[in-house]
Specification:
CATH architecture of the largest domain: 3-Layer(aba) Sandwich
Distance between the termini: 60 Å
Helix content: 25-40%
Strand content: 15-25%
CATH topology of the largest domain: Alpha/beta knot
Order of helices and strands: EHHEEEHEHEEHEHEEHHH
Bound molecules: adenine
Number of helices: 9
Radius of gyration: 23 Å
Number of strands: 10
Shape: elongated
């Protein structure tokens, strides 16, 4: 079973997230477990200080190594399996995407270190961290939002977490394409109809239409995704037909 553990000085940021929606239901159904550990609990002294001034000077504060190392060791000791990995959320890490989410979903446990202030004492990272992950090229005030994003994306890939057997397989990115368009009732909304084919009950036609919209929206919105992906025969035919339709419009 996947066990997510978040090490943070703000556990109250993480806990409400674990208490909502699909993540909450997966925890209740014991498909995943998730908890936060308050790093401050591992700090020394009456004031439980977790940060200090940087050696060498400069602005900002650095997270002290002892409390974090203590929290990581406690999390590792509690981890249900040796197959748990420790992740440090940092803008310097490997950029998170669906492929990394899929790979992380294979482990039995993810221990996530959330930095605050300017960063974390380098010596904690050296020995204790397996992967550094960034959620994008921008800087947050701490790793908590990033940890929640990683939990959310990974949890929904774990078998049983989403309702249908294959809900996650049809997602955007899974086949290297963006997902098709979705419609629900009413059949006419503010004058706009649901595409006829979806009301036809013909599953072959519906699948073909979905592939078409999926391909076309990938070309329009994220052409970069197609650079690393070979098109199969059916997909090429769809795009060729699209080109012919456009030619017709041009020459009309
Ligand atoms: N902590 C601060 N910024 C971050 C980012 N972009 N990704 C992951 N963790 C972070």
């Amino acid at each position: 079973m996947m066990d997510f553990v978040v090490l943070t000085i703000f556990p109250e940021m993480i806990n409400p997230f674990l208490n909502h929606g699909i993540v909450r239901r997966a925890i209740e159904r014991e498909i995943i477990s998730a908890s936060s550990i308050d790093v401050r609990g591992f700090a020394e002294g009456r004031h439980k200080v977790t940060d200090d001034r940087p050696y060498g000077g400069g602005c900002g504060m650095v997270m002290k190594p002892e409390p974090l190392a203590g929290a990581v060791r406690a999390a590792k000791a509690n981890a249900p399996s040796a197959n748990a990995k420790t992740i440090y959320l940092t803008p310097q890490g490997r950029k998170f995407d669906q492929g990394i989410a899929r790979r992380l979903a294979q482990f039995d446990g993810l221990i996530m270190i959330c930095g605050r202030y300017e960063g974390v004492d380098e010596r904690v990272l050296d020995g204790l961290v397996d992967y550094e992950i960034s959620i994008g090229d921008y800087v947050l005030t701490g790793g908590e939002l990033a940890a929640m994003i990683v939990i959310d994306a990974v949890a929904r890939l774990i078998p049983g977490v989403l309702g249908g057997d294959d809900s996650a397989e049809k997602d955007s990115f899974e086949g290297g394409l963006l997902e098709h368009a979705h419609y629900t009732r009413p059949p006419v909304f503010e004058g706009e109809k649901v595409p006829e084919v979806l009301l036809s009950g013909n599953h072959g036609d519906i699948e073909k239409w979905r592939l078409e919209t999926s391909l076309i929206r990938t070309v329009l919105k994220r052409p970069d995704l197609l650079k690393d992906r070979k098109l199969n025969l059916q997909e090429k035919e769809i795009l060729k037909k699209w080109c012919i339709d456009i030619e017709k419009i041009i020459s009309a």
